[in-house]
Structure formats: C-alpha cells, structure tokens
Amino acid sequence: MSRKTYKQKKKGAGRFVQLPHWILATEAWSSLKPGPRALYIELKRRYTGSNNGRIRLSHREAATALSVTRNTVGAYFEALIEHGFIHMTQAAHLGPSGIGLTSEWALEEYPTDDLKPARMTFVRWREKQNPRPKNGTPRHDIRDTSCGSGVDSSGTVPNFGT
To answer: 106: helix, coil or strand?
Structure first.
C-alpha cells in the first residue's frame, strides 16, 4: 500500500498561546497595563496543558523575555496577582544542594495539577472606587473652646475691662 505523500509534508501549526475572548472581556483584563499583559502571555506560553501549578518563571527570566528590568517585572507579577490572573504555588527557595529554585506559578483559569478546581478570581475582580465624603471636608465649630480662641461656651467674647 502506498503512503500519502501530502501528509508527510505537513508540519502542523506549532505551539500557540490562546487568549479566549471571555477573558479579554473581563474588567480585570481591561484594567491591566500592557506590561502585566505581556507577562501573562509569557506565563501562558510556558503552560503545557499539564503543568499548571508548576509553571516556573523567575523575575530574571521574565525580565529578559520582556526586555525590562527585574524591578519592573516584580510590579508586573504583583499586578497579575492583585487582579486574580495568577497565584504562587511555591516561593523561590534554595534546593537541597544549595542551588536556588525559582517560584512556581499557577494560572487561575485552569485547574491545578493537584486536582483543585480553577479559581477564576479575575472574573469577580472589580476596580476599587475611592469613597467620597458625604458633605465635603469637616469644618471646625466656631464655638469650640478646645482651641483657646477666647470664646466661652455661650458664644460671647468675655470683656477684660478695656
């Protein structure tokens, strides 16, 4: 039986990063700045479909991949954690041979390796609103005697014989 030659030439599409529309439509995603979005795409690039909760990405590797400094990447990680897109499953530490091991991350949209369901906290995330004062700034009472203004509790200024 002869082989089908057209199938031998097909290479496939290769790996890709999928960003579903329902994630892009969340308030958490729309409030993210471009830097944390790029970091999230880098974390998703390292997700293989079976390693959620064990995605390794250090600040140094992320800084190199995004062409920014390590200090900047730290703020990107914090923004993704605050918005509920990722969480740390294991912090960076020294291994048994004294070699440092990087942090391990989990994407919140997928279940983790230990069969815990997806958290999806970014769906419930809302922008914090600054509460407004009801009547503006509080004013001092004119009859307040604690400031030593010379006004007694009845509201009259005492006569000192002048």
So the answer is: strand
Q: Specify the pTM.
A: 0.72
Which residue in 79, 72, 75 sits closest to 125, CA to CA?
A: 79
- The CA distance from 112 to 106, in Å, is 7
- Spell 114-133 as b/e; 16+ CB within 10 A means b: eeeeebebbbebeeeeeeee
Tens digit of pLDDT for each residue in 103-119? Answer: 999 999 999 988 899 99
- Asked if 73 and 59 touch (Cβ cutoff 8 Å), the reply is yes
Ranges of each domain in the chain: 17-124
Q: What is the DSSP string of 9-76?
A: H-----------HHHHTSHHHHHS-HHHHHHHHHHHHT--SS-TT-EE--HHHHHHHHTS-HHHHHHH
Work out the angle at residue 119's Cα, subtended by the Cα atoms of residues 125 and 92, and round it to the nearest 5 degrees: 100
* Structural domain 17-124, CATH architecture: Orthogonal Bundle (1.10)
